[in-house]
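Methods, example record. To illustrate the input and output format used throughout this study, we show the complete record for Arylsulfatase. The sequence lines were provided to the predictor; the line carrying structure tokens was produced by it.
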Amino acid sequence: MVPLSRLFFVAAIFLLAAGGYAKDRCKAKRPNIILILTDDQDLHLGSLDYMPSVQRELISEGTSFSNHFTTVSQGCPSRASLLRGQHAHNTNLTHVQAPGGNYAKWKASGQDEDYLPFWLNKAGYHTECKPPPNHLEPWAYDYNTPVFSKNGLAPVLYSGYHQTDVIRAKVYAAAFLHARTLAGRELIMRNSLSRLNYLTQKEQDRPFFLTIAPAAPHVELSGFPKPQERHKDSFLEAEAPKPVNFNPLDYFARQKPSWLKRLQQLKDSAIDLLEVHFHLRIQALLGVDEIVHDVVKLLEGKYVMHNTYIVYTSDNGYHLGQHRVPAGKSLPYLKDTNLPFIVRGPGVPTGKKSRLPGTHLDLAPTFLDIACVDPQSFPVYLDGRSLLDNWHNPKRTANGSESASRDIINVEFWGSSVFEIIGHSGRSNNSYKTIRIVGEETAWLYSKWCTGDTELYETYFDPFELENLAPKAAPGSLQGQMMNRLDALLMVTKSCSQDTCRDPWTVLRSSCVLDSSCPHDRIFSSIGTAMDPRFDEFFAKLPKVQMPECLEYQDVRNEGPYLPPVSSSLGSDHRKPTDNYKSPTQPGKPVLGNIVDQGAWHQRHTPIHEMDENARKLTKEELGIITS
Ligand SMILES: *[C@@H]1O[C@H](CO)[C@@H](O)[C@H](O)[C@H]1NC(C)=O
Ligand SMILES: *[C@@H]1O[C@H](CO)[C@@H](O)[C@H](O)[C@H]1NC(C)=O
Ligand SMILES: *[C@@H]1O[C@H](CO)[C@@H](O)[C@H](O)[C@H]1NC(C)=O
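The corresponding predicted structure is encoded as:
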């Protein structure tokens, strides 16, 4: 195994040497990048419709991509995958709790010092990426106990404010500081504002990378999400969408896998709770909408908006009653995995909608591409690819083999699923591996669960994923043949890395070459070409995806067989082993949050320096640090 320190060193050298990457756009000043990453926001429950600034400043001024997916539908694993550019099966951050994954595992694996902001920083971007010394999890989902750590410093409690307002104020200060101005007069004016740090001209010439990650509209640990006081009367007339897969009839519910098939229809009282939840979600998002407004106006005022990419998305999607499951994420279905994804920035057409697919794995290579880092110098272990060409040409008809492999979306999960709000109760046996095809002429969702259940939906005709074709598909039937192809792809993608993720067909073609039953006068590079009946025998014979045990974490022995057949390293060459890592178990002394809900109208524009006046550092006792 290569020691992590050496990998890091090698990556640093490459990134420093990247200046020679010759592209016309790289001769000019490189663009700033802002990533807005909400928590648990849906694409399919209409939440974007209730965000006027997102509509006006991002959707109208940029391009919306309707086929963007997370590859794992849960916060911590999804964020780890985005920041490392790797599938969860390669980061091994597979759940929000030990042993699957948590902050302690992220740190123990050394991945916390080798991820996207560090790479952009090495490429000359201004970033603040020092991780907090303590895990701030207990307060992350408590809107009225806003605790923040600035660039690795001791955590601070902002009494008297709503969490989303503190984020707004901090983001504004950071963007104000790093957005390059036209220099000259404004620079002098700014210098005279004594509270604000002064940046040297050299610093001003550095582009910046800023991630804005509000907790909204995530639930609080004790219940519903909590909007700012000023938004509590908004949208009272709105109704939660109830598409055809909302609380469906037994006929459909019984076709589902694992614990889902035993669910009872939701009662009226449960539906009433979903309705309340829906309102609080769209109200909580209004605080995020204000952040979008403020940031865009600030950048426009500084004449840098034209050279800034803003990417708006979420860590995972959300369901409210679809397939009879009350509130939550963690399922492979469209509501949980297909995300809001809007890009505004240089060269991105305005007001366009695009169906070109992408995943969160693609963001790291895309941002490195924007930063003009030579692709030869990207960290070797990235599983995605740059989407920048798609952003610039969202209507382009991608050429055959390229687009056929981009249409393949691998989504995986280990561990349990949580019913949020209703008792926060969990359902185990929620480990599954899925593959989704999002082609223009063919679209499927195929899944294998640890319980042995199999699902096949022809999503081209059944976008609500109701009619499970798997149990009905006879081996020789068209659907049976399709399942063999999808299983073969999943066999590759479930443990893929790097190129085998970007084009799993190459692995299957190599197997075909070695197989006498495979016709060698033709090849396949898409579902369409692979469906040629002459490949039936080859695909039928391949070993099938299975997970003998329902484990709460990824175990190499429970994941096989593998294709390529050598036992996969599952990313372990690029991170430190985490066996027996320790998670903090000793909670600190409770921190007293706001007694009254905060975020009234008079706090709409409160700046951070005013908030700082009431802020205080958390004590060692509150942080649970035992001192001897
Ligand atoms: C992933 O994490 C689990 C739990 O910590 C551990 O048992 C397993 O060995 C790890 N797998 C790999 C491939 O690193
Ligand atoms: C089509 O895609 C392949 C694979 O990425 C690429 O090598 C080739 O240059 C592309 N052809 C065109 C015409 O864009
Ligand atoms: C999990 O699945 C296994 C295998 O199908 C089954 O025996 C077990 O009862 C399930 N457990 C739960 C909690 O559903």
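Annotations derived from this record:
Residues 259, 428-429, 451, 550 surround 2-acetamido-2-deoxy-beta-D-glucopyranose (ligand 3) (CB under 6 Å).
The two ends are 37 Å apart (CA to CA).
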